[in-house]
Amino acid sequence: MQADFVNEDIICSSLQAENAHEVIEKLGGILEKAGYVNKAYVQAVQDRELSFPTGIALAGAAIAIPHASPQGNVARDGIAVAKLSDKVEFRSMEDPDEVVKADMAFMLAVKAPDQHLNVLNDLFTAFQNAKVVDELLKAETAKQIYQIMHDNLSEN
């Protein structure tokens, strides 16, 4: 139930960060404070991002979806969402030598290792819809971002 992974308490409608490392640190802090993950998970996401970058260029925008294997470090499922105050460079998932300037970041916290692909697939499906991406970019509050995400993620 990916729609259930999104909660207003882990959405930031205006996140200020200088680089990908700081985005992950801040989103990880939000997830940790809300009881979704521990510090080890945040470090695992940082480490994974170095080897397997998560920046994705979309039509008219770019996003990043940092995540890692749970390895007992995820207490509950969630997707922390950040609309970035200024674009932040992430290395491209498709070509790690390329850089994308992300407008938003979606940090996954998924307890079951076999669920990551389902969640990623759900996000990719939603982001293929230019209207969804445009609505997210125009959203000004966590409540608006929550509603858009909830309405466009799978219920099963």
Helix content: 25-40%
Q: CATH topology, what is it called?
A: Mannitol-specific EII, Chain A
Radius of gyration: 14 Å
Provide the low-confidence segments as ranges.
Answer: none
CATH C-level label: Alpha Beta
**Order of helix and strand elements from N to C terminus:** EHHEEEEHHH
Quaternary structure of the protein? single chain
Label the structural class. alpha/beta
Mean pLDDT: 93
Quickly count the domains.
Answer: 1
Provide the spatial order of strands within the biggest beta sheet. Answer: 1-4-5-3-2
Strand content: 15-25%
CATH architecture: 3-Layer(aba) Sandwich
Number of strands: 5
**What kind of sheet is the major sheet?**
5 strands, mixed
Helical region count?
Answer: 5
Straight-line distance between termini: 5 Å
CATH level-4 homologous superfamily: Mannitol-specific EII, Chain A
Main traits of this protein?
globular; Mannitol-specific EII, Chain A; 5 strands; alpha/beta; 156 residues; 5-stranded mixed β-sheet
